[in-house]
Amino acid sequence: xxxxxxLGKTYTSGGRPLTxxxxxxxxxxxxxxxxxxxxxxxxxxxxxxxxxxxDQPSAGTVLxxxxxxxxxxxxxxxxxxxxxxxxxxxxxxxxxxxTALENVLxxxxxxxxxxxxxxxxxxxxxxxxxxxxxxxxxxxxxPAQLSGGEQQRVALARAFANEPKILFADEPTGNLDAxxxxxxxxxxxxxxxxxxxTLVLVTHDMSLADRARRVIRLHGGRVVSDDRVDPxxxxxxxxx
Length: 240
Description:
Layout: E1 2-13, E2 16-28, E3 33-37, H1 44-51, E4 59-64, E5 67-68, H2 74-84, E6 85-89, H3 100-111, H4 122-132, H5 148-159, E7 166-170, H6 178-195, E8 198-203, H7 206-209, E9 214-219, E10 222-228
């Protein structure tokens, strides 16, 4: 469960305050699939960062799985994210000197290399995830040896490595062509269902938002609509 109350964020730009998010109240149920939609500058990426505990709000509170993130130190938030949260970004953020397998192992080792829910050890879990996203034959490849779509699939496997309760994704198909983007979103949906992970993603792409079961629209840093919808049938997701 995610609960945000009175959430706001103000930065200082050129010596003057710039408010990018204001008075946001929302709740996200466990196992939900939510898309946050809005034009550039609407505050959607800022909202995602606050909900995930990557940044602290200027006003309001965020409760993630019952934990008030606004009361935690930076180190405590980092530990909480490692235990509960996965991330997928538009630009992959893979470590270039590590193989696909080693990239997926990083969050597992940072958390302490504990067995997964099914008892699998770190190495077996990482291999299984890469096989699940169709990269079983790319385990020893470095990011530079992989296509953009393959790198995003490694990033997706890495995001699920610690079996997170919540997965946040920021424009996960923004750098992909339509066919590859559709494949990545289908994988996210499948993992959302199979692992019962709450999925919250930011996008400006309506064809992607139509796949969600709930669509929150932002404009000018405020929530302007919040609709629960019947997701569209699986199909192509527009690329850049």
